[in-house]
Amino acid sequence: MESGADTGEMPRCYVHPELLAGGFCVSCGKPICPNCAVDVAGKNNCKNCLVEKASAPARSTERNFNVSKRQLVGLTGSTLLFLGVFTPIVSLPIVGSVNYFNNGKGDGIFILAFALISIALIYKEKFKGLWITGLGSAGIMAYTFYNVESAISKAQSELSDNPFAALVNIQLQWGWALLASGAILLLATAIVNDAPEQSAKV
Ligand SMILES: [Zn+2]
Ligand SMILES: [Zn+2]
Question: What pTM, to 2 d.p., does this model score?
Answer without folding.
Answer: 0.57
